[in-house]
Amino acid sequence: MHHPSRQFMKAVVIRKGGIVAVQDHLVPSVNDDDILVKVVAVAQNPSDWKFLNTSSNVGTVLGTDWSGEVVQRGKNVEIPELGAHVAGMTIGGTFVDCGAFAEYVKMPAELTWTVPRGTLTHEGAATISGGLCTAAQCLYHPGRLGLVEPPDSVSRPEWVLIYGGSSSVGQYAIQLAHISGYRVVTTASPHNFEFVKSLGADAIYDYKDPDVVASIKQVTEDSVCHAIDTQSTKETQQLCARAMGTAGGKLILMFPPTFKAKKLRKDVQFIPTLIYTALGRPLTLGPQAQYAAQPKDRAQIVGFLKKVPGLVRDGLLVPNRVKLWDGGMHAIPEGLQYMREGKVSGEKIVYRF
């Protein structure tokens, strides 16, 4: 394993007008605490195409979730070793020197995790980091739900509502909550019921069922005080607010709360979360959406990532189902369009480079 001798690499770069193209791009240079990874597989996320619409992102490398092999280490890095199979998430579509849809990605070593030998393929490992870290931030961050984190488990099984159980974040949130000893009530399409149950959900309802709120209240005996809305649309925020128990509680959102949802329940804390604040660099998601790097968010995820290899080794974490998209890096614009059209359900589009 050696550092690439050439100065340029192929990467998926954002151009004017929100389009992407594969072009030559500088190989990022590593700092003392970084590693450089030769990317083997990447997974596509809904956030990827959302970065295309911000003019300040022109010239940046797209892509969040990756899996690959360590080819260079900064002078302070002892783990992972050169040649190790590692995976992680980066802030794609924001900076010229990081982004997963490229031949090489630069990462702070502490924000990656080593894939135990003989456990996961690069394709499977690529689906994990973004969804899993978001789920861990929602469940375990003291400023979010602050629940009991593995290897500990809760003494009395309380209910957690996870709206959107077959989404990437939903799948990992169900698995983590289950490992932590919580009882999980979730929503999904009927064709995903068996799959979501296999991840550890205790009760599953069709999100299109007009009685879904009543069903959640009944099975949980109106006791839900911990909830995650993985969709966080106007409609789902209100639905989750109504499904919360009589004592109120905390509802974690992927987007800011709507006025209507907050008006519905004064006894519920609506807490938006964004995993990118844990990655150590400020970012802009639009003219009104600027986010500073949050050291507390980073510290929480760094601590959690240390546990991930063990969870994978013990078979406690199942990756998202992979839809392998042929054509490698050059096929990414096509795969993004497919996702934009809402054709992805319960699986992740993955490319192998």
Automatic annotation (TrEMBL):
<protein>
    <recommendedName>
        <fullName>Enoyl reductase (ER) domain-containing protein</fullName>
    </recommendedName>
</protein>
<feature type="domain" description="Enoyl reductase (ER)">
    <location>
        <begin position="18"/>
        <end position="350"/>
    </location>
</feature>
<dbReference type="InterPro" id="IPR047122">
    <property type="entry name" value="Trans-enoyl_RdTase-like"/>
</dbReference>
<dbReference type="InterPro" id="IPR013154">
    <property type="entry name" value="ADH-like_N"/>
</dbReference>
<dbReference type="Pfam" id="PF00107">
    <property type="entry name" value="ADH_zinc_N"/>
</dbReference>
<dbReference type="GO" id="GO:0016651">
    <property type="term" value="F:oxidoreductase activity, acting on NAD(P)H"/>
</dbReference>
<dbReference type="Pfam" id="PF08240">
    <property type="entry name" value="ADH_N"/>
</dbReference>
<dbReference type="InterPro" id="IPR020843">
    <property type="entry name" value="ER"/>
</dbReference>
<dbReference type="InterPro" id="IPR013149">
    <property type="entry name" value="ADH-like_C"/>
</dbReference>
<dbReference type="InterPro" id="IPR011032">
    <property type="entry name" value="GroES-like_sf"/>
</dbReference>
<dbReference type="InterPro" id="IPR036291">
    <property type="entry name" value="NAD(P)-bd_dom_sf"/>
</dbReference>
